[in-house]
Structure formats: C-alpha cells, structure tokens
Amino acid sequence: MPRANRRRRDDVPLERSRALSGAPARQTYAGRDWLVRAVAGTATDRAYRCPGCEQDLPAGIPHVVVWPADGVGGIDDRRHWHTQCWSARDRRRPHGPVR
Ligand SMILES: [Zn+2]
Predict the structure, then answer these.
(1) How far is the C-alpha of 32 from the C-alpha of 21, rounded, in Å?
(2) How far apart are the C-alpha atoms of 89 and 81, rounded to whole Å?
(3) Is the pTM of this model over 0.90?
C-alpha cells in the first residue's frame, strides 16, 4: 500500500488566504475602531445614505463599507460611505450619532 503523500491543507500561508478573501482594514473614526472594506458596488437597486455627507450613495458605484470593530451591532450595523468621504472623515463631523 503506497504512502499517502498529500499536502496538508494548512500549507497555504494564512496571510495569502486572508488577502484573497479581502480581509477588512482596521481604521479609526470618532474615537473608535472600525473595520473597512472597499466594495466595487452592489448588484442590487438599493441606494444607501453616506453618513459623511448625508447624500445618497447610488447602488453600483465603488464605495467603502464600514462597521464597528468591536462587533457591537454586528454585520447589520454596517455603514456605506463614499470612498472620498471616508478618506476625509476626520474633516467631517457626523450629523448624527455615529452608530
Ligand atoms: Zn459621502
């Protein structure tokens, strides 16, 4: 009976697999940590409101999705920002509660 010579599943470097899955970046805003992921645009017709400028964020345009890094509210507490607005977030004051 031949020896098994399979590669172990965990031979794939963790960092590489995380990069491929689009692991979110951790950034700060309003004194909190947030996880941020750039998205290419949603396929749905749903439009969002950007918390930075209070303007509509039409579906289908690239933007960033942001949610609290501490997990409070979970994935349902995501916010959709214009990429420019998130980049300039320190120059903007939230119009309402951050979350
Ligand atoms: Zn905006």
Answers:
(1) 24
(2) 10
(3) no
Q: How far is the centre of ligand 1, averaged over its atoms, from the C-alpha of 34 (Å)?
A: 17
Q: What pLDDT is stored for residue 73 in this prediction?
A: 60
Q: How remote is the CA of residue 96 from the centroid of ligand 1, in Å? A: 14
Q: Calculate how far, in angstroms, residue 17's C-alpha sits from the geometric centre of ligand 1.
A: 31
Distance 48 CA to ligand 1 centre (A): 10
pLDDT in tens, 46-72: 788 999 999 999 878 899 999 888 876
| Whole-angstrom distance, CA of residue 85 vs CA of residue 80 | 10
Report how far residue 70's alpha carbon sits from residue 62's, in angstroms, rounded to the nearest whole number: 25
Q: How confident is the model at residue 28 (pLDDT cuts 50, 70, 90)?
A: very high
Cα 51 to middle of ligand 1, angstroms? 6
β-sheet bridge partners, residue 66: 36, 79
Q: Return the domain boundaries, the chain.
A: 24-91
